[in-house]
Write a structure and sequence with these properties.
The protein has 14 helices and 10 strands. By secondary structure, the chain is an alpha/beta fold. It folds into 2 domains: about 5-245, Alpha-Beta Barrel (TIM Barrel); about 255-330, Non-ribosomal Peptide Synthetase Peptidyl Carrier Protein, Chain A. The strands form 2 sheets. Strands 3-4-5-6-7-8-9-10 form an 8-stranded parallel barrel, surrounded by 6 helices. The protein has a two-stranded antiparallel ribbon with strand order 1-2. The radius of gyration is 20 Å and the shape is globular. The two termini are about 30 Å apart. The model has no long low-confidence stretch (mean pLDDT about 90). The chain binds flavin mononucleotide. The site of flavin mononucleotide (FMN) has 22 residues, from strand 4.
């Protein structure tokens, strides 16, 4: 069992990464159905929350069945972070997560944001401000450091633990690397093996298949794995990894029926939660992966991203169900491939 304060997770839990414009409640619902043990909201600006910005407030929503769920905030001002932690606290999620390292302009222009990765003292002050403002467990997600010459995650981990955080997730890249190259988990393992560290350490970066998940879990000894891009349009990644951990064998790939059913559920929740215009629009980024591996799918995909009503989308999905009934793609043809997912503009 892995504990984050009072939250109890199974051994080697799988976490759904916070992803802006992706990890919203509808997407989290289908990930939960498929085995995600702990999920995070998209990041929320502390300044936005305080100003009552509608978009920021909306990101506080979650369904009861999502628990345990974390709400992620970011910002460079102690007071704003403390205030927003209080706002998050009032919505009663299971934990508050702090994102250190997003270089959004309005934060960076105040000399904070990504700069936090270069300023551990500020990081500690911001963390303490949040820890003191909420009764919920506080966790942090960050990168290895600002760049190759400032790989300070070992010091960061100790100092944030001392500041009172209850778990730390490390993305095995620097800010300067953005998404380039392969994530380097060796420093994550070093943090985990530091005898001073007693909080759970979760590893993140490039987990895209059951074999890799098992290999990284064993090689780097982390307490759990956080998965981001590989879950987009492929929420089955969680159950596939769990099955592989338990048996050493691959679970059968989702059938076409399942792919259509889950995609429809995601769409319906999306429309329910965001309204039909946004709900339909924002589903478009998911279809490529939901349908990956099906031959000559381009024509259907084009239709899915051009039709305007939920009924039309559903009717294209039903056509796909009929046309590909019984078709099973090979494993390497489905799921995540980095190039497909738009690189975010922000190096979280
Ligand atoms: C579209 C997108 C949006 C993201 N938004 C956030 C975010 O809001 N907060 C955050 O901490 N990380 C964010 N990230 C980074 C992911 O949480 C994760 O650290 C990164 O994608 C590496 O994990 P992966 O290789 O499993 O995708 C985002 C990544 C992507 C691809």
């Amino acid at each position: 069992m892995v504990r984050i304060g009072p939250i109890e997770l199974p051994d080697s839990p799988l976490l759904l990464a916070p992803m802006e414009d992706v990890s919203d409640p509808p997407f989290r619902a289908v990930c939960k159905d498929n085995g995600a043990d702990l999920m995070y909201s998209e990041f929320i600006s502390s300044e936005g929350l305080i100003r009552d910005a509608i978009k920021s407030r909306q990101k506080l929503d979650f369904f009861e069945f999502e628990r345990p769920v974390g709400i992620q905030i970011f910002g460079g001002d102690e007071e704003a972070m403390a205030l927003s932690a209080r706002i998050v606290d009032a919505t009663n999620p299971d934990l508050v997560d702090i994102n250190f390292g997003c270089p959004v302009k309005k934060v960076v222009s105040k000399g904070a944001g990504a700069g936090v990765l270069k300023d551990i003292d500020l990081m500690v002050r911001l963390t303490k401000a949040v820890v003191q403002a909420t009764r919920l467990p506080v966790t942090v997600k960050t990168r290895l450091g600002w760049d190759e010459s400032s790989l300070n995650i070992e010091e960061v981990a100790e100092r944030l633990q001392d500041a009172g955080i209850k778990a730390l997730t490390i993305h095995g890249r620097t800010r300067a690397q953005m998404y380039k190259g392969e994530a380097d988990w060796t420093l994550i393992a070093k943090v985990k093996n530091n005898p001073r560290i007693h909080i759970p350490i979760f590893g993140n970066g490039d987990i895209d298949a059951p074999e890799k998940a098992l290999a990284y879990k064993n090689r780097y000894g982390v307490d759990g794995l956080m998965i981001g891009r590989a879950a987009i349009g492929y929420p089955w990644i969680f159950r596939e990894i769990k099955h592989f951990f338990a048996t050493g064998e691959h679970l059968a790939l989702p059938t076409i029926e399942e792919r259509v059913d889950v995609c429809k559920k995601h769409l319906q929740l999306s429309v329910q939660w965001k309204g039909s215009v946004l709900g339909i629009l924002e589903m478009r980024r998911h279809y490529t992966n939901y349908l990956k591996g099906l031959p000559h799918i381009k024509e259907f995909r084009t239709r899915l991203v051009t039709v305007k009503t939920m009924e039309e989308v559903e009717s294209v999905l039903e056509e796909i169900r009929v046309k590909f009934a019984g078709y099973v793609p090979q494993r390497h043809m489905v799921g995540f491939s980095g190039a497909q997912v738009e690189e975010p503009s922000c190096a979280w």
